[in-house]
Amino acid sequence: MAAVVSKALKAEELFARATATTEQIHGPEDPDLVTMLSNLGTVYLANHEMSAAEASFRRALAIAECVHGPDSVTRVPRCSD
Question: Sign (positive/negative) of CA torsion 77, 55, 30, 15?
């Protein structure tokens, strides 16, 4: 169990760092952030950090809506994709 928790926390650290780096290099509205923020939100969910997960998913959605428009069906990748 400790190994699973350790891996989930490491994943969170790596996704957060990759997201921050992409944002610094490409800006806060970069379309690549949609997938990265969705992945980070999923890791937050796995770590039972619901507020952080919601914030990450909402930000991913906001960027996707700016890029693809508010009525696009390709806003945020589904977990099953």
Answer: negative
Compute the distance between CA of residue 39 and CA of residue 59 in angstroms, rounded to an integer: 12
What is the per-residue DSSP string for the chain? -HHHHHHHHHHHHHHHHHHHHHHHHH-TT-THHHHHHHHHHHHHHHTT-HHHHHHHHHHHHHHHHHHH-TT-TTSS--TT-
Q: What is the mean pLDDT of residues 31-55?
A: 94
**Which of 54, 46, 63 shows the shortest CA–CA distance to 9?**
46
Question: Whole-model pTM?
Answer: 0.79
